[in-house]
Amino acid sequence: MAPTGRAALLAALGSLPVGLLEPSWTGILAVNAPLALACACDYALAAPVRRLGLTRSGDTTVRLGEPADVQLTVTNLTKRPLRADVRDAWPPSSWQPGTEVAASRHRLDVPSGERRRLTTRLRPTRRGDHRADRVTIRSYGPLGLFTRQGGHRIPWALRVLPPFASRKHLPSKLARLRELDGRTSVLIRGQGTEFDSLREYVPGDDTRSIDWRATARQSAVAVRTWRPERDRHILLVLDTGRTSAGRVGDAPRLDSSMDAALLLAALASRAGDRVDLLAYDRRVRALVQGKAAGDVLPSVVNALATLEPELVETDARGLTATALRSAPRSSLIVLLTSLDTAPIEEGLLPVLPRLTQRHTVLVASVADPYIAKMAASRGSVEAVYDAAAAAQAQAERRRTAEQLIRHGVTVVDATPDDLAPALADAYLSLKAAGRL
Fold first, then answer.
1. Which intervals hold domain DUF58 (predicted)?
2. Fewer Cβ close by (within 10 Å): the C or N end of the chain?
């Protein structure tokens, strides 16, 4: 019978004594005792993590898409040198995908009684407040065999502001505003709101602007030039209800509305108008009122930073009542909302006369560029069906806009890239026409 188990092993090893194959705890301890002692000494010589001093400094605000640097200062208050790995943890949306490991982990060497500063570079991918999580420190002994590990809570908050991509349009809009204000050689012809000066008539001038008394006193026909009134009241109303959560391209509709509101706020405040902001769905989500011209844009940006769409139907009556309380006298009310048929017909239209009776109302909405692309598609049965559906959606949207126009509302319907400059142009046109 063939040998098995321990007998087979002994047969394979030939003439080796059986005693060499038996476990010898004395031998094991004799071999491992120096290693155990080295590990114990290594652990004992590692700098204690709990006795370290940690403080933060750095950026507290940053625009979405831009980097922010937050410094972590580590002070070694122990009598042992610190050799450690440090992980500065933040929410996942504080980093670009795939960069968290490289950006949040640091290697550190701090002699006793000294300090070192680490810089964590954040690049947030979402607006709002980002708060620092736990700082984890793993302290190594001289031999690197054993470590001490612990965590510290070092509070810090970074507010991520809207990107304000439309600010690139501001110089051109300000140039047109200067023309309206008469600061350049080009003056408004025709109707305005505030008399500026007289000049000689040229073909094409509105005959209603002729000053007949001045003409009688001189040989040439004199016309009045106008400049828009200043110190008008602009109320920006952001609908933060369910429809603002719909994504157009890579971002919710609310983000495009915010960008348009920021450009208009910057332009109107430069024009000398007073700008307020209201964000509403079923309750007030943000409110900015009574700010000086130089404080308007920072206040609006800060208020919009933490604003998110709410998955509820907007209360149009509540929004109207709140807007009327926020705009007690004749104002321009700019409502950034959806042009979807149901919310307009069932929500806004029944209460719209309350707004148009006292105020000039402008409705701005984000159009989906993909709908226009679908409407132009051809070449297959599926493409034709897509084109028919897109044409129907466009027709409904036009009918909704026409209903608002019949109520005296100015409507701006544009794609995300074009909404901000189109809204600014509409404001300047109203100003030039003397409707503010």
1. 198-389
2. N
Packed helices 293-305 and 253-270: angle between N→C axes, nearest 10 degrees: 170
Assess whether pLDDT exceeds 50 at residue 6: no
**Residue spans of beta strands (DSSP E) within 162-311:** 194-200, 222-227, 233-239, 247-248, 251-252, 274-280, 284-288
CA distance linking residue 374 with residue 390, whole number of Å? 6
Distance CA 23, CA 43 (A): 29
Residue 98 CB contacts under 8 Å (≥ 6 apart), including other chains: none
| Interacting residues of 167 by C-beta distance below 8 A, sequence separation 6+ | 262, 263, 266
Residues paired with residue 147 on neighbouring β-strands, in sequence order: 140
Residue corresponding to tokens 């919710």: 252
- What are the tens digits of pLDDT across the range 151-197? 999 999 999 999 999 999 999 999 998 887 664 433 444 344 555 56
Q: How does DSSP classify residue 47? A: P
Check if the beta carbon of residue 310 is closer than 8 Å to that of residue 281.
Answer: yes
Residues 367 and 282 in one domain: yes
Residue 22 lies in a domain: no
Is 412 among the domain residues?
yes
Residue 192 exposed, middle or buried by CB count within 10 Å (0-12, 13-18, 19+): buried
Cα torsion through 259, 422, 353, 269, rounded to 10: 60
In a domain, 40, yes or no: no
210 and 293, same structural domain?
no
What is the β-pairing status of strands 105-110 and 233-239?
A: unpaired
Task: Count up the domains in the chain and report the number.
Answer: 3
Out of 109, 141, 161, a domain closes at: 161
First to last CA, the chain: 110
Digit-coded pLDDT (tens) for 190-225? 344 555 567 777 776 767 777 777 787 787 888 776
SS3 185: coil
**Which residue's entry shows tokens 């002699």?**
111
Structure tokens at 150: 């612990």
Judge if 222 and 278 occupy the same domain.
Answer: no
Beta strand pairing status for 194-200 and 222-227? antiparallel
User: Are the CB atoms for 107 and 284 separated by under 8 Å?
Assistant: no
- How big is the chain, counted in residues? 436
